[in-house]
Design brief:
By secondary structure, the chain is of the alpha+beta class. The chain folds into two domains: about 1-50, no CATH class; about 60-210, Lipocalin, CATH 2.40.128. It contains five helices and eight strands. α3 runs antiparallel to α5 (about 190-200). Mean pLDDT is about 75; it is low at about 1-50.
């Protein structure tokens, strides 16, 4: 009986904390119902991310690239809100940048083979390849010679549509710039500088691949 009471009490405390957090976000967004709904959606998004980290993703296979994914690793609510200001703009600009090399949502694929090799493809074209290791949600991708043996370490989390692979923002941007160089696509320095400027505005920013299977 004591264990049951303790469990119920813990659940009540979690619900109370969630309601308090939602109330705080409601005040930040404003008092009307639409803004309160936005606050609730943001809270659900944050909680959903935490829950999804407990789900193990089976990585081997062919994944369809669905777009750039981004997240902020922080417990600071205001930092999360600040990041949301740049999120859509950053993702759109980076998606446009990657399209120059053929990494297009719904077209490009990332294939993780059982022999620990991987390839990023677009139709019959291979954009990048290398080897990977995957253990306890941590993914390490090691690219080949054309990418100067670039290594990216990130995390894999389940999403409602598949999975997200997130890396440190600066490292992912380095991959994007190398891909443009390898493929020989044209890109202005102003575009790269704009993207880099946006990534520097938010601490703890992660960027990567939104994948569907």
């Amino acid at each position: 009986m004591k264990k049951i009471f303790t469990t119920i009490l813990a659940l009540m405390l979690v619900a109370s904390a969630a309601n308090a957090q939602s109330g705080l976000l409601g005040k930040i967004f404003g008092g009307n119902s639409e803004n309160k709904s936005a606050a609730g959606n943001l809270l659900e998004s944050v909680l959903g991310t935490v829950i999804s980290q407990n789900v193990n993703v089976s990585l081997p296979g062919t994944w369809t690239y669905a777009g750039v994914a981004s997240a902020v690793e922080t417990e600071n609510t205001l930092t999360t809100l600040a990041a949301s200001t740049y999120k859509e703009n950053l993702e759109n600009k980076l998606d446009g940048y990657l399209k120059k090399v053929g990494i297009v949502p719904g077209v490009a694929n990332i294939v993780f083979n059982n022999d620990n090799s991987f390839a990023i493809t677009s139709g019959a074209k291979t954009i990048a390849s290398g080897t990977y290791s995957y253990d306890n949600k941590v993914l390490v991708m090691k690219f080949g010679k054309l990418y100067n043996y670039l290594t990216m370490q990130g995390t894999v989390t389940a999403s409602t549509s598949g999975a997200q692979v997130l890396f440190e923002a600066g490292k992912f941007l380095e991959f994007a710039k190398k891909a443009v160089k390898v493929v020989g696509a044209k890109s202005s320095n102003s575009t790269v500088n704009t993207i880099a400027g946006l990534t520097e505005k938010v601490s703890g920013l992660k960027l990567g691949f939104d994948l569907k299977k």
